[in-house]
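Let's sit down with a protein and look at its sequence and fold side by side. Please make up or recall a protein chain and show it to me in full. Label the sequence line and the structure token line clearly, so we can match residues to local backbone shapes. Go ahead whenever you are ready, and we will take it from there.
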Amino acid sequence: MGPKGSADSWERPDLAPYAARSSASRGRKYPEVLKDDRPHFERDRDRIIHCTAFRRLEYKTQVFVNHEGDYYRTRLTHTLEVAQISKGIARRLKLNEDLAESIALGHDLGHTPFGHTGEETLDQLMQDFGGFEHNRQSLRIVEVLEERYPNFPGLNLTWETREGLIKRSGRDFQTSSRVPEEYEPHLAPTLEAQIIELADEIAYNNHDIDDGLEAGYLHREDLMDLELWREVNEKVRRKYPGLDPKREKYQTISHLIGHLILDLVENTLSLIEENRIKDLYDVRHFRQHLVRFSPETERKNLRLKEFLHQRLYRHYKVERMRLKARRTIRRLFETYLENPTLLPDKYQRRAQQEPPERVVCDYIAGMTDRYALEEFKRLFDPEERV
């Protein structure tokens, strides 16, 4: 609830007919008397930015663990880059920027410490108890775990933002088993939600190149074997002859991001036209993502992803940290289950009402890298103060 007509009065007039609209939102799970007349999706964005889980992203891993250096991206800086790219794509497609930004800012709220290694480890530990997946955890955070409001759990976001968080990376809508029935797993999400997966990919591919070069795990001469990097780099060299290596790197990354965004926008507009997408109903009933790279760019981008997987994510120093991360999370999980009195009071109370495995999983998933490592020391180092 809120001021009558508030969403209509602030709706952008130039939205495409297939864009999501605040004025047509399915609303929030719990009724509220709102204090002002912000559009619904803008309010969602603001609630996400101010929540506890968002702040913790500052000390969660992207590739390099937080204490390895101040230069490297964290889960928070990655999230901001994804939001920036998502808004740029939404603006060019005349979609709802507020909704795209809200989903982008919330898309990694459920990520564990130590990046995908933490997620994989928790999923293994939770196999007999429903598993773990960070999109589902992001939804759980905004629906249940955040404690900010007097009359309801979570953030009470709109249905569309919540749907985007759980569906944003699901390409096969007909067979998805991880999307709750409430969010209509048989239907495609909004185009605003579809943007997020590829905006995420554009962001992490490019900033991982930057971080990998800075760390010395990647080398410029190896990147020149990649068609996508080489083509963009040659354009930069023609545009700025004699540029020093550091600026050349930054400009190549910047131009590559722009190239990928332009390709994505142009190909998506072509698919919308080819498939005669007229409105949001058509978007939801189309059986595939409409937001896609062109086939040629998708092929080149796949090669870039394979390169990063082989040369960066499996680098022996990253593997060493991955081993430490697995051991840390596994030991913490097993210890809390065996000794639930080690948990903070509010988690002990929740463990009386919910499966203790899920409560322990929630607690560990919410930790930052730094806190998880410090907790490991407190529990297992005899000389560490508790």
Confidence is low (pLDDT under 50) at residues 1-5. The chain has one domain: 15-20+39-318. The CA atoms of residues 42 and 297 lie 33 Å apart.
